[in-house]
Write a structure and sequence with these properties.
The structure is a single chain. The chain is an alpha/beta fold. Helices cover 23% and strands 26% of the residues. The chain has eight helices and 16 strands. The strands form four sheets. It has a seven-stranded mixed β-sheet. Strands 4-3-2-1-16 form a five-stranded mixed β-sheet, covered by helices on one side. The longest helix has 10 residues. The protein is globular and about 55 Å long. It starts with a strand and ends with a strand. Bound molecules: zinc ion (2 copies). The site of one zinc ion (ZN) has 6 residues, from helix 1.
Length: 274
Amino acid sequence: MKLKIAGSGGMSPIPNPFCQCPICEEARIKRGRYERLGPSLYIEDIKMLIDTPEDIAVACDRQGISQIEYLSVSHKDPDHTRGIRIVEPLGYDCISDKGTPVPFIALPEVIDDINAWNGDGLHYYEDILHCISIRGTDYVKIGTIEIHLINNKTHRGNMTFYVISDGDKKVIYACCDVKPFVPNPLYFDADILIIGLVSDNSILKDGSNLADAPFKDDMFTLDEIMELKHTYRIKRIIVTHIDEYWGKSYAYYRELEKKLDNISFAYDGMEIIL
Ligand SMILES: [Zn+2]
Ligand SMILES: [Zn+2]
């Protein structure tokens, strides 16, 4: 199985054009892995893209992702859906007025959420432009790849965690709205858990503490992540959805992960092969 982190950032890109913090300034100079675009994952084996942040077209171009045969969206939030227009050039040729719909695979609850938020946006692409074909499901098998779509339903709403397996290899992609982490037996003995919204030391970019932030209850600490790793006997953790407001650079995380037990931090273009 071969996966690629197309974007490892969070709500805002790094650099954020309106920010002069050291991390954004450093990214402007160094570029490459110091930059982060919105959160998304590409499953190379089946050419499936999970999530469409607003900069997804740029992310695909940077990472050499030139084919998308399946598309999925984890939940309705703008940082995961506002790039949905990527389906237009994928599934519809505006010159010939013809196209081949791209299968859009998501939990039925998530499809309803997206339509409610975007004014029937998905129906526009399915019924008028005919560039997607919507399939609401919690399980799909494509070739040898099996995907369980699990609703991590909490007070924040519907959020899809993906359990992606190929034979005895298993990866969980839980990129956003991770806490509370609703138990599920399918998570046991995964090779890798790719998880978002993790704080390493609770210090935000302006020096303030996570404990005083409005989103304090949404974040996992590294200790809590170690607990999850232990409980579910997961071999390796990769942290993604690394938000600009943490104020931590690519180089910082590379140093930090040396001290941790099989926890690493994603970067745009990171390849995961197992
Ligand atoms: Zn900044
Ligand atoms: Zn998010």
